[in-house]
Amino acid sequence: MAAHCQVTGVGPQYGYNVSHSHRRTKRRFDPNIQKKRYWVPSLGRHVTLNLSVKGIKTIDARGIDTVIAELIQKGEKV
């Protein structure tokens, strides 16, 4: 599963592990991506999305129809 949210667009960020002696090694901060299935009344079918938790909260606040309409307008495959 790709580590990108389809609604917010958040992806992995990069940084360092810093030891006690202050040596730095590369690391990756992955977002909390969940696979979520929604019923979309305007399309008349279920849609499965890869979402961060913030993306799930966005859908709860604005509604699935609004968010799906914006994804289709951006050209995202739904």
TrEMBL record:
Q: What Gene3D superfamilies does the annotation carry?
A: Ribosomal protein L28/L24
Q: Which InterPro entries match?
A: Ribosomal_bL28, Ribosomal_bL28/bL31-like_sf, Ribosomal_bL28_bact-type, Ribosomal_bL28_sf
Question: In the UniProt record, does the keyword GTP-binding occur?
Answer: no
Residues annotated as signal peptide: none
One GO CC term on file: ribosome
One short Pfam family name for this protein? Ribosomal_L28
Keywords carried by this UniProt record: Ribonucleoprotein, Ribosomal protein
UniProt superkingdom: Bacteria
PANTHER family documented for this protein: 39S RIBOSOMAL PROTEIN L28, MITOCHONDRIAL (PTHR13528), LARGE RIBOSOMAL SUBUNIT PROTEIN BL28M (PTHR13528:SF2)
Question: Which family does this protein fall into?
Answer: Belongs to the bacterial ribosomal protein bL28 family.
NCBIfam families the record matches = L28
Its name, as the record gives it, is Large ribosomal subunit protein bL28
What gene name does this entry carry? Answer: rpmB
